[in-house]
Amino acid sequence: MKSKKAIIIGGGPAGLTAAYEFLKQTDIQPVVIEMSDYWGGISRTVDYKGNKIDIGGHRFFSKSDVVMNWWNDILPIQSDSEEIRISYQNKSAVIKNIPHAADHDKVMLVRRRKSRIFFNKQFFDYPISLTPETVRKIGLFNTFLIGMSYIKASLFPIKEVQTLDQFFINRFGKRLYRLFFRDYTEKVWGIPCSEISAEWGAQRIKGLSVTTTLIHYFKRLFGKKNNSIGQKDTETSLIEYFLYPKYGPGQMWEEVADRISAGGGILKLNTKVTAIHFAEGKISGVTVTDALGVSEEVHGDYFLSTMPVSELISALQTDIPANVSEVAQGLKYRDFITVGLLLKKMNHTPDDNWIYIQEPYVKVGRIQVFNNWSPFLVKDAGTFWVGLEYFCNEGDNIWDQSPEAMGEMAMREMQQLGFIDAAADVLDFTVIKMPKTYPAYFGTYARFDEIREFTDAIENLYLVGRNGMHKYNNQDHSMLTAIQAVENIKNGSVSKENIWSINTEQEYHEEK
Question: Gene3D superfamilies recorded for this chain (predicted)?
Fold first, then answer.
């Protein structure tokens, strides 16, 4: 019997990774408490009448060997995925076309990445690059002005970059930023880029610039193609291939949950943490309430939180400094709605994973084509299964619309964009809402260090994951924060600096 327990709040990628690592590395028993009725958080797969939805789209790619090996241990790479030779460390497999039925279900498929921007009724590469095709579409004069704007930004950059618009202008020049970045980004966040911290760009865009996209283009044109899943020398936004669970991201986390349960971990779904208790300066336990309203107190030795920071601070049963409460209450989040449309036909027949909608006359921000993530997400291979993504805030006009109204808006906007001819092209639809999808880099975020100083001082509390740290991390970074927290506990380290340092710079932490 394990002598100590780790209480893990949240069953998303970070929480489940931590639980699995406790079982692999320590004699500590993990107890995972998840308020919803599914595992994986936003990295889940929603099944609607046999058609599967990936909320937000999750490419399984990382520059961290730790994460790549971790995924491959759970769901190994299928050896017959596409007609390219994929090298991954010491593994090599000849990939062939994916049949609509495969021998093995618990596998990762190798997928080609393709995303484009839809702007002015035309498709452009995503990320945007000044290729001959782009020049033809935007015209020589516009290209000249973009070039001059970029040269100006390169020669006379903004010295002290504070806001996201300044970050974009330094990277791409003012004209390219206004054409291809501003409208979509402001649609995502609902406020001007001038009110968003530049830190968001540093985390999400990293090394991407006009120069890197041009270099990447010419390497592809004249050089040897990079068919390695590792792709460590490639900017993340420019990778050519990624891994993807056969039945969507939820398949990964459901399998991890099964392994945790089989290994002796305790899993609690439909259970909400309503209070966090203190004793002698440490957290001693949590009060949880299940779907039937039954409450109990669960005690533990270590506590890992992936719950939104604002909710964590509210649940702590101790004296909270006034400044910490003020910052926590002022943290903002962006919420998310996916409208799944089942189509009997679709104009353009896109082979994209995502289509970024830069057009200002529609509210949809991005469209996923689930057929191109995995053919196994679509019940009928003769149909198109797409997800229209809307960015909103809980309680606003979009969030409060009925499913019927959201479905009608999605159909109407697909017609406006020219992707379908009529509502009759839509066979069925569903609407999925996800609150607190994106932690925002505005509100009181500039003072977040005041919260971190307070929580870091609680010796047996570790904040991990996207919402747990209020950092717009990718799935792999969230996993790395969890892995690092478990290693710190195993090694007896009380410092949390190495957890917070993951994904804070231009390059990945493990490459330093």
Answer: FAD/NAD(P)-binding domain
d(CA 437, CA 440): 9
CA distances from 78 to 92, 137, 227, 333, 370 (A): 11, 39, 16, 37, 19
Q: Which CATH number fits domain 4-42+251-331+441-511: 3.40.50.300, 3.50.50.60, 3.40.640.10, 3.40.50.1450?
A: 3.50.50.60
The length of the chain, given as a count of residues? 512
* DSSP states along 71-102: HHHHSPBPS-SSSSEEEETTEEEE--PPPSS-
Q: Which two tokens stand for residue 41?
A: 């958080």
Angle, in degrees to the nearest 10, between helices 448-456 and 322-330: 120
Among 98-112, 178-192, 293-307, 319-333, where is mean pLDDT lowest? 98-112
> Can you tell me the distance from the alpha carbon of 288 to that of 295, in angstroms, rounded to the nearest whole number?
5
- Overall average pLDDT of the 157-166 stretch: 92
pLDDT exceeds cutoff 80 at 372: yes
Q: Which CATH topology does 332-440 take? A: Polyamine Oxidase; Chain A, domain 2 (3.90.660)
Percent of the chain at pLDDT > 70 equals 85
Residue 268: alpha-carbon gap to chain centroid: 24
Count of other CB atoms within 10 angstroms of residue 237: 17
Six token digits for residue 92: 């090599």
Per-residue DSSP letters for 317-377? ESPPPHHHHHHHHHEEEEEEEEEEEEES--TT----SEEEE--TTS---EEEEGGGT-GGG
* pTM (two decimals): 0.87
Paired tokens of 333: 């989040």
